[in-house]
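name: query_chain
kind: protein
chains: 1
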Amino acid sequence: MSGKIKYINASEYPKEVLSKGLVAVDWYSTECPPCEALAAKFEPLSEIYGDHIQFIKIFRQENRELADQLDIHSSPTVLFYKDGQLVGDRLNGGIKRSELEANLNSMLSDETVKAIKNKIKITKTNCDVIILGGGPSGLAAAIYTSQAKLNTIIIDTALPGGQVKTTHLVSNYPGFIEPVQGFMLGHYMSEQAKEAGASYRAAVDITNINFNELTVTVDGIETIHGKKLIVATGASPRPLGIKGETEYKGQGISYCATCDAKYYKDKEVIVIGGGNSAIEEALFIAKFASKITIVHQFATLQANKQAQEKAFADSKIKFIFEHEPREFVKTSRGMDVVIEDLKTKKMRTLSTDGVFVFVGMKPNIEEIKDQFNLDKWGYIETDENMLTKLPNVYAVGDVRSKQYRQITTAVSDGTIASIAISKQL
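structure:
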């Protein structure tokens, strides 16, 4: 037992959960990185809140029947109970400390919450290398610095793996004869970094970064100081910026085929874009959807020739060239997409069940971009050793200014930065 936590099984659930006052229950599994990330938050919170709320952990793999009854199908899942009744949010996946605290606080009086907050102390941790971001570039850097016996801490607002986690299949990463599932490639990298000795602060809120002092504060409770800092925050899908996009994101508009293609079995979808991501993801969506219409602004595709050939050969995939979307409108069926013919300037409307947008990426540096020299596209400029204009601060991977952004080039960046750092330290 760690913290003020009680481990129970299904037979004890009625007594220890349903017959108690305030209870927080963590359904966990083994060999589950999100569960490990949650444990690092759940256990210390049990020490803080444990006098007021009972903290329970139950092993999902050995209590499947009860898990199914409670509609629990992913690990971890955290449920909150008050007098035997479910309250608050059902949390799962990469659960943040702030989400746990919000639900725990909602179960208590304002006076009690204030007293608890007064007990929370900010801790200080020292290390050699801080890595902001757990994608391929950050993980590659961590493998090298950890193997060089440098104390390395990876900080990520999500779970390790980066964009590669949402890629269906990766067919061009060296060492894999057959295409490897993206989430597994990310998992292998993460486990290798962990085995080398790297520590993680995963699914956290970054509440402050001081590049001059090389400190990062996570969840408002831990300030980590490093001798070197690597920015590996990656990039995110670039939005179109048209009417209806923000309103209907996640309600018919998606940016992740791996996440959402399964919801369009035997349905029709529209894919916006014509680069590698758009075409390769369209081929994946074709495993589910009955028809795919690709809308592209140019007269030809920009994807690699192999992907183009597969797309043109797939009878499910149709193309509309030299058109751009101008508006998304929610309908009873799904979505209407208003598109403009770039040659005639005429508008027309396409009706579909869902839309996938793949029109490039943007660097994840919105809160820190003023600290760096940026290129005209907003990416961080570095020297050949990945060093930015700031002393002891490096930038690697998709966040960095460069011509090509691939998993292999991200890993290369991380390798170069880590070797440079290892020689200095």
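note: The first helix runs from residue 13 to 18.
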